[in-house]
Amino acid sequence: MAKTDWTNLAARPAGPIADTLLANDVADYIRFRAVCSAWRACANDPRVESVFDRRYHPRRWIMLRHAGSIRGRTCFLNVFTAEFVHVRLPDPRRHYILGPTAEGLVLLCRKGTLVVQLLNPLTGQLTDFPRANTLLSSDTSYYQIMDNELKNFQLLNAGLAENSMVALHYEFNRLAVAKPGDKNWIRLDTSCGIISALPFEGRFYCATDKDIVVLQAMEGQQPELVMAASYELERDGQLFVYLAENHGKLILTRWFPPNHSRGQRHGTCMVYQVDLDAGKTVFMPPVDEHAVFISFYGGRALIVPIGLSPSIIADTVYLCKRKTTRDADPVNFIVYSLVDGNVVQDCRAKCPCSIVDHLSCYVRGELFRCIN
């Protein structure tokens, strides 16, 4: 039998194959280009494209904590297939790693110049943004103060907006935006109280104390937050809400803290779809063979298929708690059933360095401060 020379695959079939791989996962596209020079010639080099080009965003990948690194390469997890890859990021001795965006990109800050950079960890695309000093709470040029703030920078949510802008939700209730070439970051009025934020269909949405707002950046005008949808929620006690995307839908998860006066120990969770056309939230049934991971302290949320790990229970919400040395509670998270509202106990999910543990650390934002 004659041996097939795949390197001589004609451009006509090779080009559509590359496009199909890119539409599925940019990691497969990169592997395709790495096979040989002939195949690379049939597929565009992502590094010459803008970091804003959504075709090359590693949306399915999240960065794992430093313990997952091998020989200086950082570990990334595909939250659909459970595949791991190891990627060499810029030298952490010369960069602060501020955190991820919802698109799978990574925000860096150069230690010498404090220039913020947006990196695509799989393609190597890199774009500069304004210096980080206009993000910080201390109005000072004293290096040790800025160094301490950047090492402990708490990025809750981040993402692209309006095709050429990056929005950062950080330090509980701060929101800042910038474009490449801007001199400073623009910090927006957040008196509305931002709890969670997420880029969705090219726009940046924020869940606040009162409703859901969207970032609007008109040419020649100061960016502002405008009303996008109202809550159709029961308002009994403190409001904890989290935005996430699932199959092209904007999802809002609500956690009701326990009411100890009523004998509740764990509280309850409910899930809603945000109907942007109608401008309201609509209660929805369980998330259909998926699980929602949210942080006990608010901010980031992630929806994953249960096939990612046998330890993930269908139609549940994982409320992830941050462990401290003084915390006597042995449970790192509470698992709520969206079917009957009961708390699910799953000992298999408590193993350190399991996929569930990685997802829990990701939504808690603990992956990045330990690297700097």
UniProtKB/TrEMBL annotation:
It holds the Pfam family Beta-prop_KIB1-4. Transmembrane segments: none annotated. It comes from the Eukaryota. Coiled coil: none annotated. Residues 82-327 form the KIB1-4 beta-propeller domain. PANTHER family: F-BOX DOMAIN CONTAINING PROTEIN-LIKE-RELATED, OS03G0792300 PROTEIN. This is KIB1-4 beta-propeller domain-containing protein. It comes from Eleusine coracana subsp. coracana.
